[in-house]
């Protein structure tokens, strides 16, 4: 069901505040985001993306894409519920599934159903058995430039049979406006626990407090001042982030001239510092280096479908329910 060779559709949103966001129908992808910075003649390009829209037909790094049916990893590429067992499509060369499978939603051609100057909405139908998942799923995603440097993305999904759901955006950010080492940025994450993982990035099952360790981002600090800034881990957010009155994360450019605050209704955030980006095509036609961008992915903790004991809402969506997730990004200059 991957998108065919038809021309990739590009949708550009322009805000009164000068934000300019370009989206693709492939993966409902965020391809480019230009943010004005006071005192600079040109806006900063803060997203990693392919040199051309067509490159995203072959995107294996999920740059800016909507991922699902279940973001992150499912151990053993299998799920169980009420005595039923489903074998899912694993990633090539792996026993596990990642981001909904090798033919996940990041590779689909989404349908543009509404377009305005500052917003766009996409839909996707995922049939029963898609990548092994039970039940059909109908998804709607809306991206809106809200003014004042704010972007909001809303996800909704409905099913006709019980199925696990976790949709998110996989944008990679570099607020410096180039593809230098993102580990020089400063980062704050309002998270209390981390899910330690094995060599295949599957959680052990026990959540560890972040107190004082390499995963403690509760105060703003440079990313590489601990653990060499190498991260690909799920962090459990504190409950105060859920009403979206308090940012789950704050990211600051290396020159401290651009700030991004992330708000989410999801219970955890995957922090990935781009250790495997080396060699991926860059926007300028060259190749990315490792750690050229940072992904902050709101979602369930990795492999949550196998850990109902974790303190987060149920992973399974039931018929008659609506799965919803709101992601808000607020760009600003340094606070006074």
UniProtKB/TrEMBL annotation:
Family named by the database record: Belongs to the aldose epimerase family.
Family annotation (Pfam families): Aldose_epim
Source superkingdom: Bacteria
Name of the featured protein: Aldose 1-epimerase
Mitochondrion among keywords: no
MF terms (GO), sorted A to Z: aldose 1-epimerase activity; carbohydrate binding
Lineage of producing organism: Bacteria, Pseudomonadati, Pseudomonadota, Betaproteobacteria, Burkholderiales
InterPro entries for the chain: Aldose_1/G6P_1-epimerase (IPR008183), Gal_mutarotase_sf_dom (IPR011013), Galactose_mutarotase-like (IPR047215), GH-type_carb-bd (IPR014718)
Source organism per UniProt: Pseudaquabacterium pictum
Matches recorded under CDD domains: galactose_mutarotase_like (cd09019)
GO cellular component, one term: cytoplasm
Annotated stretches, region: Disordered: 85-105
GO BP term, example: galactose catabolic process via UDP-galactose, Leloir pathway
Keyword Cell membrane: no
Keywords for this protein: Carbohydrate metabolism, Isomerase
